[in-house]
Amino acid sequence: MHQIGTTLTQFILEEQRKYSGATGEFSCVLNDIALACKKIAALTSKGDLIGVLGSAGSENVQGEEQKKMDIITNDVMIEALSRGHTAALASEEMDEVYNLPKHIPRGHYLVTFDPLDGSSNMDVNVSVGTIFSIIKAPEGVTNPTAADFMQPGTTQVAAGYCLYGPSAIMVLTTGKGVNMFTLDKDCGEFLLTREDVKIPADTKEFAINVSNQRYWEPPMQRYIGECLAGVEGVRGKDFNMRWVASMVAEIHRILTRGGIFIYPMDSKMKAAGKTGKLRLMYEANPMGFIVEQAGGMASTAYERIMEIQPSDLHQRVPVVMGSRNEVELVVGYHTNR
Ligand code: AHM
Ligand code: MG
Predict the structure, then answer these.
(1) Measured between alpha carbons, how far is 176 from 197 in angstroms, rounded to an integer?
(2) Where are the alpha helices (H) located in the chain, listed in sequence order?
(3) 189 with 183: CB under 8 angstroms?
(4) Which atom of ligand 1 is nearest to the CA of 249?
(5) What is the pLDDT of residues 116-167, one digit of tens each?
(6) Whose CA is nearest to atom 19 of ligand 1?
């Protein structure tokens, strides 16, 4: 138990003290990320005042339009994580693994991140977020390659996100539950505001982009159809729907009051040779780890996300995560056909 109001830095150090062999390197990585998130929170809140909205006129490796803020926030993350505590980085916004410049000492951690998830929301002043995942570099590897990142989500030592909404909130797991820290701009610190957050097992709220409905597989048609049927249908209850188009905001809502978030596989993606919309290394694994640590469930509708053996840095997967009983139902519809 930590006292509400404990700073993120104090929290990290108090946790570090529990491990006699701890070198402090892992704590430093978390501190580096917290600093980057503070800088990104300041940039997002200034928005149009500093001319950071709109497109950068380039595409990322996945052929998606890059926003100015995708590039700026990626640079902020790289700068913060180039302090000698990491071995290499990988980002949704970079084609290849980022190897640190030669003069920077090498640490033992690999960090993957989506520097600004939901970045299209920036232009309309709606919530965005930074997502990160930390794994260990294989023993003895000093210049990691993409192959060294190909570890299933179960190997994550920490994961988190920072939501830039009405307030900036850092949500963190190191595998011992989920804690939330709200940025107090007056003192420039993330302060512990919620400890050991748990997702209710049941919910009456779903989040899915219904504009893709005609492309969904039959089990997903069935599940959402039953939700929409309301009290008169087999579920016997009315459901509410939300779609922020920012996974960070959706998962944060689910951690706060329950719900299910779905970005399913569909026939349009299949025809285009895609294996899903969201990225395993930057979105699905870290969010899956957080959701599981909060007592929820994270699946592709067929298998546990965290057990997928990655084969590509930018691999995409279908995502179904949130309230346990609801995710179980969706998985059941897909696997017991
Ligand atoms: P991004 O990383 O390029 O911002 O894309 C991921 C986002 C998620 O945050 C969100 O759930 C989804 O894409 C929104 O998709 P859609 O365009 O179908 O609304
Ligand atoms: Mg993203």
Answers:
(1) 11
(2) 8-16, 25-46, 68-80, 146-149, 218-228, 247-257, 267-271, 285-293, 324-335
(3) yes
(4) 9
(5) 999 999 999 999 999 999 999 999 998 899 999 999 999 999 999 999 999 9
(6) 245
